[in-house]
């Protein structure tokens, strides 16, 4: 891949830390500079996950040849559509684009062409694809990653955080250039472009039905009455979190919801005796929590949630041997094919072919096993053309063997 080299700490941006753009005039100057710049545009966004409700951007960093680095406060400048138009013809370079694209699109920045350095690293078989590791492995530079989990909604942002943010885009285009060359040399560039396009054009995920069912530890809750308490507490927490722009876990931890559902406290005193309700934020809303518990306890039977919802996909793979031994055999055979192909092409199995597509194909294969029918099924399940070219025939052969 790349030769070992002396690692050099990357401590300061080349032109220093730029001032934060936080007004219309400053933003207009950035738009003008980036319109006049050349080449790809490195982009990153910082959120406040774990601190604020939702995943909005609290800082946007950009760098382009001829324009330098810009740090934009999207709270003060919530519409970046003019900047988006200024770089509409440019390739946008991101790392782990699926994480940043939603919050960038919320403020009017919508790439038309993209290069994802994290996804490129996966296709090239790099074992660790975090930005800091990739920059160190590929470029021999060490990034300081100490502020990645900071509360970026803080104002004013500390100088050390701004330095970190500027450095995140400092060498992103250089990283892109090396990875682009490696993709070309390995014959994977077309695959990468197809993957980048799929990320850009993917529809936003549909809102989850019954999102309260994702409460950590809910597997401990066995009765539908206790599940009703989980649902009521989760809903109350979500309302409070949204109204106060706080991450739900900072309002009330999941452990508190599950503990209250299991114990079913009937009084304020009983509720406060649960250790997870002793935090300051939890105590502030103690009457709301008790009301939610009481609602869950007094719902009619018709209003109670079902123990679980039935998904549209196959059951967990560890149950296949009991429920459908033939399907379990097909799955084992298909997985072996995918693992072998992934090793041959030096990439993770999940990037060669989505695990969910493999499960769905083998749980309910086409009535007639042919390369055409398997290709059609995989395409419908979201497989890209380059994935089909590598996997459709060997998967067809594997399925045919298990049916024989």
Automatic annotation (TrEMBL):
GO terms for molecular function: 3'-5' exonuclease activity; nucleic acid binding; nucleotide binding. It comes from Nonomuraea glycinis. The lineage of its organism: Bacteria, Bacillati, Actinomycetota, Actinomycetes, Streptosporangiales. Residues 298-322 are annotated as: Disordered. Pfam families: DNA_pol_A_exo1, DNA_pol_A_exoN, HRDC. The keyword Disulfide bond does not apply. SUPFAM superfamilies: HRDC-like, Ribonuclease H-like. This is 3'-5' exonuclease. Residues 300-311 have a biased composition (Polar residues). Residues 223-303 form the HRDC domain. InterPro entries: 3'-5'_exonuclease_dom, Exo_C, HRDC-like_sf, HRDC_dom, HRDC_dom_sf, RNase_D-like, RNaseH-like_sf, RNaseH_sf. Keywords: Exonuclease, Hydrolase, Nuclease. GO terms for biological process: nucleobase-containing compound metabolic process.
